[in-house]
Write a structure and sequence with these properties.
The protein has 13 helices and nine strands. By secondary structure, it is α/β, with parallel strands linked by helices. The protein has one domain (7-287): TIM Barrel (Alpha-Beta Barrel), CATH 3.20.20.190. Strands 1, 2, 3, 4, 5, 6, 7, 8 and 9 form a nine-stranded mixed beta sheet that branches. The structure holds SN-glycerol-3-phosphate and calcium ion. Calcium ion (CA) is lined by residues 66, 68, 149. This is Glycerophosphodiester phosphodiesterase.
Length: 289
């Protein structure tokens, strides 16, 4: 059995023990594991994918932030989850005649006018949809790390190269960032493969739960397999971690989106490497004591 698989089995056992005794598996191995990643920033407490959500994660002491990157009509990369602006901005009020309000149909200047905070709460009125450049600079200011998702790449031809260009321009492709502060992930295997081919030194993740029989193919271009927690098991995590990724290290598993303590402890028991959560404080406490 691969050493990582042995570790996962041990972890699973520790996870079971953790349910019986008030000692978490993370504490048992020294703390800080599994990693906790603030999903769209600390998005339970501040509007998702805004600079305020990055700040909130930092305030909570969370080192990793996840985001979603898309492109405007005039070619600017912006940070937003949905392919349209309706749910998380006041676009329908500001541009009532522009249905269906797709991100790709608005210029960066138009999007910069939108309020991306009021929908979440009055305290965040006036928050903006950040550009990728603004977002990575805020993450940098807090000395945090970034799990960057290229969202809907089929809508934005060339977005992989453009994302890497922005990251490079902002200093995120230097040795220290590549060594442990940046992961680029996505639901599209083609897109993740493209990132890997364009810049092999970048750590990458595939979002999904491919059959184990397909994992050798993914291991050629992805360092992580990142499934929804509902599709996970100890056996699946161990199977993933038994493969060696493109950088010669065992594949990792970051799972999403876990917002309660019991589920966090359960998936930690499966042996995952990271937990992506809207409530990073709750998950940190659950897995680290
Ligand atoms: O990081 C994992 C997670 O963000 C994937 O789902 O829809 O929230 O982007 P979604
Ligand atoms: Ca995402």
């Amino acid at each position: 059995m691969h050493a990582r698989a042995v570790a996962a089995s041990t972890t699973a056992l520790l996870g079971t023990v953790a349910l019986l005794f008030p000692v978490s598996p993370a504490r048992a191995v020294g703390g800080g594991w599994p990693l906790v990643i603030a999903h769209r920033g600390a998005s339970a407490y501040a509007p998702e994918n805004t600079l305020a959500a990055v700040d909130k994660a930092a305030e909570l002491g969370i080192r990793w932030v996840e985001n979603d990157v898309q492109r405007t009509r005039d070619g600017e990369l912006v940070v937003l989850h949905d392919d349209n602006l309706r749910r998380t901005t006041d676009v329908e009020e500001v541009f009532p005649d522009r249905a269906p309000w797709k991100v790709k149909d608005f210029t960066a200047a138009e999007i910069a006018r939108l309020d991306a905070g009021s929908w979440f709460g009055p305290a965040y009125a006036g928050a903006r949809v950040p550009t990728l450049e603004q977002f990575v600079n805020r993450v940098e200011r807090h000395h945090q790390k970034l799990l960057l998702e290229i969202k809907n790449p089929e809508l934005y031809p060339g977005i992989e190269r453009q994302t890497l260009k922005v990251l490079g321009n902002e200093g995120w492709l230097d040795r220290s960032h590549l060594a442990g502060r940046l992961i680029v992930q996505g639901f599209s295997a083609d897109s993740v493969r493209t990132v890997h081919e364009l810049k092999p030194a970048v750590k990458t993740g595939f979002l999904g739960t491919p059959p184990v029989s397909d994992l050798p193919g993914y291991a050629g271009f992805a360092d992580q397999i990142n499934p929804s927690y509902g599709s996970l098991s100890t056996a699946y995590v161990a199977s993933v971690q038994a493969f060696t990724g493109p950088h010669g290290r065992p594949l990792e598993v970051f799972t999403w989106t876990v917002d309660d303590a019991a589920t966090a402890q359960r998936v930690a028991g499966y042996g995952v490497d990271g937990i992506i959560t809207n409530k990073p404080d709750v998950v940190r406490e659950a897995v680290d004591g």
